[in-house]
Amino acid sequence: MEQFLEFAKGSLFAGSFVIMVLGLARTAFITLWGTKNALDKAGDKNIPYKALIKETFEWMIPIKHITNSRSAISIVSVVFHIGLIIVPLFLLDHILLWQKLGLSWPGIPAAIANVLTITTIVTGGILLLNRIFHRDTRFLSSVIDYALLVLILAIFINGFIASKPFNPIPYNLVMVIHVMAGNLILILVPFSKLAHCFLYPIMRIASNIAWHFPARAGEEVNKTLYGEENKKV
Amino acid sequence: MTIKEKPKNKYPYYIEAPLEYKRVDAFLKAFSAILEHSNYKFILDLYTRISMKCARCASGCQIYQTTGKPEDIPCYRSSILLRIYKRHFTLGGWMKSKLTGGSGITEKDIDEMLESYYQCTACRRCTFYCPMGIEHGMITHLGRYILAEIGIVPKALQVSVREQLEGASKNTSAIPVPALIDTLEFLEEEIEETKGIKVKFPIDVEGAEYVFFAPVSDYLLEADTLMGMACVLQTAGISWTIGTGNYDGINYGLFYSDDFLGKIVRNEIDEVRRLKGKKILIGECGHASRTAKNFVPTYNEGSEIPVVNLLELTLKLLEEGKIELDPNVITEKVTYHDPCNYVRSGWIIEQPRKIIKSFIKNFVEMTPNGKYNLCCGGGGGTVSVDEVKDFRMNAAGKKKADQLRATGADIVITPCANCKKQIEEVIEYFDLPMKRMGLHDLILKAIKLK
Ligand code: SF4
Ligand code: SF4
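^ thats the input. predicted complex w/ iron/sulfur cluster below
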């Protein structure tokens, strides 16, 4: 078990990380290439970048937008994300892992990490319940939407109880689950909706660019479909 | 006149003739051609990746708020087309279908899209509620475009566009030039009778600063709006003209076809060129303004023709002191309805309010308002489709009615031809104690003519 744990934390972790980076590089390439192409083709290339960037930031710290709708669940979601971003990156034990990959930055005190872990578990739990019991969210959800949330919760819960005195399960087993699930998430980031953590900054700019049509798109479509530039209405 | 046999399609009122070919194949073919030549592919890629399925957008959509049908949740609406895109146009979707044995697009999907994309008013309100900023209005727009390429278009929209692009009158209401000129003469006489001053509607003046495009239905229905505008422009000494080559600002291309959208915009540009005008002036109309403002730069390919909305111009003239409005004429309680196509981009929100507050003392806001205002319920061209009146009233218009009633106003100002028609019907249908007017209808009453 211990050997496998070392393997999971070592080669497997490094491998998953590489898959994530490559996957994200692919996503980044597709997205940036697509956006650039669209901009090149657009008849009007004026994009209000400043306003869009401002909007993007406003939604990142969505104080202004929380009262818009379903405020409670929005706040829960924001709190959920805080721990979700900070703990994996800045927990001291994780920093050791990152160091193995040659990455290094300062960590956060264990007490803060504990608090953030708990808030993320609690809010994640609420989000899961919301997904199960709120009619609209349930209607939109498919298996993967539940699975990702369960996976994240599993990682946080396992990581949290592993070193605690009240942990009833053998330490190594908990850690194996924790690390393996963590690796799985890394792999899933580029290939699932988790990619939003990476694509979010470009969303609003891209949407705006998409409203900028190529000047002759209509005629070109006609040519492809009907063999001539103009069609009868 | 012969009555055509009713098409045996499930939605007979939507289309002109039954389709004789397999819709599924045709749909995919059209979809792929559109993806190839337009700019939608990359955004569909992005949206399929980051749709979070959180349902936050549900609270932004007044259709959903009224019907409560989960199928009306914006994210679900968009997911129909996104699913088809993913399955048929991405590697991942193809692999998934091989693994899970999932089938592709079906006839049922086409029916569902047709229903769904014409029960969305493309008002774009939901975007403000989505943390990811997904533009469901754009997906609706694209869905309708693809459907139109396989012959599925509400008849009312198609007939209007046909008249505008191929008909003799070149406008959606089929008003011939002599009738237009008669109307303008009548309006001039009317102003002289009521206001005692001769105000002209300049026709075909070369080199004017502004070439004016009204939503053409105004010439039939909105005399007061037009007279108010003419008074403002003449009093301020603005050089403007109506061109007899093309005088219709309506652009239903925005509601179902990028091809026609472009052609109609180009016709506007051509008319401005013919008259050697400098700027395009669009009257009280939301979608006419948005199509010109957003798409003249696109279809004019490079060279610049500024697009100005009438409310912007009137405010400017008011602030420069070139027109004067009597603050004692309008005593009723007045509220203002923001057309979606003015406000979602943040373009025209404060201008009308400044004008209103300058001469109307008893002004109340409706809630929500401005950028967040509720759609009148007739957006996205649905207002022209009489067959869906039931939907426009009971699903899309109901919240509007509640919102209007809550203001307790006597007059609701609606500076958009589509909103005017829809809100008039809402007022009648829900028996609201108010009347709707254009902003320039009130200006007509209050303006001091020199
Ligand atoms: S665009 Fe308007 S009508 Fe359509 S889904 Fe969004 S809020 Fe609803
Ligand atoms: S708010 Fe945005 S991400 Fe959430 S369900 Fe709606 S469209 Fe999807």
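Residues 334-446 of chain B form one domain.
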